[in-house]
Design goal:
Layout (H helix, E strand, L loop, with lengths): L6 E5 L6 H14 L7 E5 L5 H8 L5 E4 L16 H6 L4 E4 L2 H6 L4 H13 L3 E6 L3 H5 L3 H12 L12 E4 L13 H19 L1 H6 L1 E5 L7 H5 L6 E4 L6 H8 L3
Parallel strand pairs: 1-2, 1-8, 2-3, 3-4, 4-5, 5-6, 6-7, 7-8
Helix pairs in contact: 1-2, 1-11, 5-7, 7-8
Bound molecules: phosphoenolpyruvate.
Phosphoenolpyruvate binds next to strand 8.
């Protein structure tokens, strides 16, 4: 047994207008108002952050953004700074999601800068790593994860990482309906925790929460959460529906 508190996060990606986001958030807070033992976070699109914050601020549901740029301000058209999302009510920010790596050219180096910027602005990063199908088939999973984790966290101290959340998201399982088996996910989570222990020590390795992401749904969350190194989930598609997401949150 460990004393890591389960953390379940919803990544709403590029879905929902402001009104839709507020409605879903309000329904969700009602459905999970009796949940005491799980941390819940939702990450709506930037445009809805402020209004969703207003809608959930009296509840225990927390707010996150899906990305940031690392600079404080400046001539960076289209970008959003850590201070801006914090001022909209965010406490978390997803960094290095595979869709950003795949479609927007994010690299381990830019991910590293974004994690640094998040921490410097008192935001907790939800740092995503994961291998593609080709990499898994080529038996390269652990090499890839080793590289992503070491480069993403290069230059950090154990103290920097106290609030960091790690998310293992096999790219082949995101939005595909294919879920890693609980044994496959557990094997990787154990590997990541060992790597953190080697790099930053036992204390952080024992306390860091490692989420699984990739086609999580009400039907598979229980099995995933029964694994000793799986501390929660990063949920995409199924988090868009408040009822379905609440079912996942109430997996016990
Ligand atoms: C995600 O967006 O991080 C994700 C895991 O998506 P899905 O649950 O839809 O696979």
């Amino acid at each position: 047994m460990n004393n890591r508190r389960p953390f379940i996060a919803g990544n709403w990606k590029m879905y929902k207008t402001c009104a839709e986001a507020v409605e879903t958030a309000k329904t969700l807070t009602g459905l999970v108002s009796d949940v005491k033992n799980v941390d819940v976070m939702i990450a709506p699109p930037f445009t809805a952050l402020s209004q969703v914050h207003e809608a959930i601020k009296e509840s225990s549901v927390m707010l996150g953004a899906q990305n940031i740029f690392w600079e404080k301000e400046g001539a960076y058209t289209g970008e959003i700074s850590p201070g801006m999302i914090a001022s909209a009510g965010c406490r978390y920010v997803i960094i290095g999601h595979s869709e950003r790596r795949q479609f927007f050219g994010e690299t381990d180096l830019s991910v590293n800068k974004k994690i640094r910027a998040a921490i410097n602005n008192s935001l907790a990063p939800v740092f995503c790593v994961g291998e593609t199908e080709k990499e898994r088939d080529g038996k390269d999973t652990f090499n890839i994860l080793d590289k992503q984790l070491k480069m993403g966290l290069e230059g950090f101290s154990p103290g920097d990482l106290e609030r960091m959340i790690l998310a293992y998201e096999p790219v082949w399982a995101i939005g595909t309906g294919k879920t890693a088996t609980s044994a496959q996910a557990q094997e990787v989570h154990r590997f990541l925790r060992n790597l953190i222990e080697n790099l930053f020590g036992k204390k952080i390795a024992g306390s860091v929460r490692i989420l699984y992401g990739g086609s999580v749904k009400p039907e598979n969350i229980g099995e995933l959460m029964s694994m000793p190194d799986i501390d929660g989930a990063l949920v995409g598609g199924a988090s868009l529906n408040a009822e379905k997401f609440a079912e996942i949150i109430k997996y016990k």
